Amino acid sequence: MTESVYTIGDLIRHNAVERPDKAAIVFEGNVRSYAALHEESSRVANAMAAAGVEAQDRVAFLDKNVPEYFTMLFGAAKLNAVTVAVNWRLAPPEMAYILNHSKVKVLLIGEEFLGHLKSMDLDGEVQVVVIGENGGDYPTYEEWLADQPTDDPMAESLPTDTCYQLYTSGTTGLPKGVELTNNNFFGMMPVASEMWSFDADSVNLVVMPLFHIAGSGWGVVGLYNGATNVMMRDIDPAAILEVIPEHGITNALFVPAVIQFLLIMPGLAETDFSSMRSVIYGASPITEEVLVGGMNAMGCDFCQVYGLTETTGGITQLDAADHDPGGPRANLLRSAGKPIPGTEIRIVDGDGADLPDGEVGEIWIKSSQNLKSYYADDEATAAAFPEGRDENGLGWFTSGDAGYMQNGYLFIHDRIKDMVVSGGENVYPAEIENVLMKHPGIADAAVIGVPHEKWGETVKAIVVRTDDAPSDEELIAYCRENLAGYKCPTSIDDIDALPRNPSGKILKTELRKPYWEGRERMVN
Question: Total domain count for the chain?
Answer without folding.
Answer: 2
